[in-house]
Specification:
Strand content: 5-15%
Low-confidence stretches: 53-63, 205-219, 246-250
Distance between the termini: 88 Å
Mean pLDDT: 84
Helix content: 40-55%
CATH class of the domain at 10-203: Alpha Beta
Structural class: alpha/beta
Length: 676
């Protein structure tokens, strides 16, 4: 059967390794089920090439140009991505996958197709039946020219990595996927691609391929008309160029930047607040996964809890965003209601999208589906491109156990209560968070986020007490590793692991982890800030350090913003931009009016200019506001050696202070040693 489009041999080409079909016939069964689903999806008959017939099979000895090139002239190429497929020496990889990729790039449609939704999809539609090693993943992404945007047929349990089968129970599968649903997704994906190709083809057919035939006897008259028409067109162009721009003011192209405000809890009882906050958090997290958006952190909007808020334009201006999402909700029994709206905040306020939801909770998907729908609806309203991989991340179900998810939401609420008050430590909230995360794991021992939550609790509980121990933060690493084993796309887990490596002084490993975090959450301000620190302080790459710090500042407009701005000023100072350093110091001071920190930065600027007298003057002023009386002493150690006697005298005072308070600052004892 030929393709539905002229010039193509098949509609679909299935590429696979014989090893993946030889023993259990998985690929054969997949193709049979896909053909049935395609019949129910398309009005036309869709042709599929699958080399089940050994006489029609493509052997290593065959000439690719003669035997394969015609068969590879297809609309959609489906490789079965397994643990054996990504082998550059194999026939399927080299002669089918790589060859199709090359041929498709050269044909009239190209390798990437713009879909009716406005999204872009590749004509290569990978079917993943195993989680891949990093080496195989890199090989595949290099050939695809980007992330693996495919459909997963993977069954996962602890220690299990095998192809999904029709009889598998999605409730036991950690991925929560059902075989027939995945088959349906493949058919729908194929339909989207082929429909877009057909539309492109029909558009081409409407364009006349031959010029207008002119009768010889009318040539002279035609030339005259052409000259007159040309003069008229030229005049119109001149008018358009000089006059129209003065009459028409183009509409401003707004940046796709969003702040999600805390949802208002309208539940009959305040104890359901954690549930409404949890939905807001998930909507925010889902939006953060979209690279085409700049999304602020939750800490940026915590200041707007409750109904007593400034106007939306005022909020947008302060946060530096074009759009604001606000919502309200209530939970009663096993049902919840939500009202969410997207508002244009920059310029004249405008309500762009709003929707109400009411849902009975029978399973976790009832919650996750609505959270996913909200994020995707907002993105669609802003005409944002969502890649297939981002869509998969947004639609992922973290756990199938309602009780486990409820304990996790309660635990996360307590954890945010702790971090909101940090460093004024609310140890009770931190302890509750740890207990609730443990309860969550009792009901679902494969819930990656609960392990990650415990990792955070461990970090804050034991950071200071175990700083000098040999196994410093090892439990934090073990828990983060467990989370990643269960969910290899959990961005926060990579940020956590990066923090561990950073604390251990393993800069390269930390950078790798932060890059992975940003792959799955391109709006993670912590990953940007930590990368900036490593680039600046250890790799001495000032340009990347400053660039990453700007990315962090752009996504965190909360209580941390003044310190983020000071850090940015420090980096500019280190790179030699004195004016920039002063500017960001002043911006930070304007926000929190912390004169001690402001004077401290001015002292550093004087030190950088080698004005040591000015340095000590600023340091003494800052010292007057400092309870530890340490700033002046600290700066003395940075100055030339002729100041060391004064340093030692000042440090002896500070040692007495340290003995009284019990404070231990390793860096300062180190500086005492330098002074002596």
């Amino acid at each position: 059967m030929a393709s539905i489009l002229p010039g193509y041999e098949y509609d679909i080409f299935i590429s696979y390794r014989q090893k993946d079909n030889k023993h259990d016939g998985w690929v054969t069964e997949f193709v049979d089920n896909l053909k049935g689903e395609l019949e129910a999806t398309f009005k036309e008959d869709i042709s599929v090439y699958f080399d089940i017939n050994p006489h029609d099979g493509l052997l290593e000895t065959h000439d690719v140009d003669a035997s394969l090139k015609e068969k590879l002239k297809c609309l959609v190429f489906i490789p079965i991505i397994s643990q054996t497929y990504c082998d550059s020496k194999s026939f399927a990889w080299q002669r089918e996958f790589v060859e199709f990729n090359r041929l498709a790039k050269e044909d009239k449609f190209g390798i990437e197709i713009k879909l009716a939704s406005g999204n872009v999809a590749s004509r290569v539609l990978p079917i993943k039946i195993h989680d891949l090693d990093s080496e195989d993943k890199t090989l595949l992404e290099n050939e695809l020219g980007g992330y693996i945007r495919g459909i997963e047929f993977i069954y996962k349990e602890p220690g299990v990595n095998r192809p999904l089968k029709p009889e598998d129970d999605e409730k036991k599968n950690q991925n929560g996927t059902k075989y027939l649903n995945q088959i349906n997704k493949v058919a729908n994906g194929v339909k989207e691609i082929i429909t877009a190709i057909k539309k492109h083809s029909q558009h081409e057919e409407k364009v006349p391929k031959e010029g207008v035939k002119v009768k010889p006897e009318r040539t002279k008259l035609l030339k005259t008309k052409i000259i007159i028409a040309s003069i008229i067109v030229l005049a119109l162009i001149m008018i358009g160029y000089y006059v129209i721009p003065k009459l028409v003011i183009p509409s401003e192209q707004l940046e796709k930047s969003i702040a999600v405000l805390p949802f208002i809890n309208e539940s009959p009882v305040d104890s359901n607040r954690y549930f409404i906050n949890g939905i807001m958090e998930e909507v925010l997290t889902n939006l953060q996964k979209i690279k085409d958006l700049r999304v602020l952190s939750r800490t940026s909007t915590d200041q707007y809890k409750g109904t007593d808020r400034p106007t939306i334009p005022e909020i947008g201006k302060k946060l530096g965003v074009s759009y604001v999402v606000e919502g309200s909700g209530q939970k009663y029994g096993n049902t919840f209601r939500l009202r969410v709206q997207l508002i244009k905040a920059k310029g004249k306020e405008a309500h762009l999208w709003a929707k109400s939801y009411e849902q009975e909770i029978k399973e976790t998907r009832d919650i996750f589906n609505i959270q996913s729908q909200i994020a995707q609806s907002i993105a669609a309203e802003l005409k944002t491109i969502i890649t297939p991989e981002e869509k998969q991340l947004i639609e992922k179900t973290q756990t199938a156990n309602l009780t486990a998810y409820d304990f996790y939401q309660r635990g996360y609420e307590e954890f945010t209560n702790y971090t909101h008050d940090y460093p004024t430590t609310n140890r009770e909230a931190l302890g509750k968070a740890g207990d609730l995360f443990k309860q969550s794991l009792k009901y679902d021992s494969t819930f990656a986020r609960a392990y990650l939550g415990l990792s955070w609790v461990f970090y804050y509980k034991h950071y200071s007490g175990s700083y000098l121990s040999e196994n410093f933060l090892d439990s934090m690493l073990i828990l983060a590793n467990k989370a990643i084993t269960l969910d290899s796309q959990l961005a926060d887990a990579y940020t956590t692991r990066g923090l561990y490596y950073q604390e251990k002084g393993l800069t390269g490993e930390a950078m790798d982890e932060y890059d992975k975090a940003l792959k799955y959450n391109p709006n993670d301000h912590n990953a940007y800030a930590n990368k900036a620190y490593l680039c600046f302080m250890w790799l001495r790459d000032f340009v990347k350090g400053i660039s990453n710090m700007h990315d962090a500042v752009a996504r965190n407009r909360g209580s941390d913003l003044p310190d983020f701005l000071r850090t940015l000023g420090d980096y500019y100072l280190g790179a030699g931009f004195i004016d920039k350093a002063k500017y960001y110091s002043q911006e930070a001071f304007a926000l929190d009016r912390d004169s001690t920190k402001y004077l401290l930065q001015l002292a550093w600027i004087e030190w950088d200019l080698e004005n040591f007298t000015g340095t000590l003057k600023m340091a003494k002023q800052a010292n007057g506001n400092d309870t530890t009386k340490l700033i002046y002493t600290w700066f003395l150690t940075c100055l030339p050696l002729n100041y060391n006697e004064e340093v030692i005298k000042e440090y002896k005072k500070w040692i007495e202070y340290s003995k009284k308070t019990g404070e231990l600052l390793m860096g300062d004892y180190y500086r005492i040693a330098i002074a002596f």
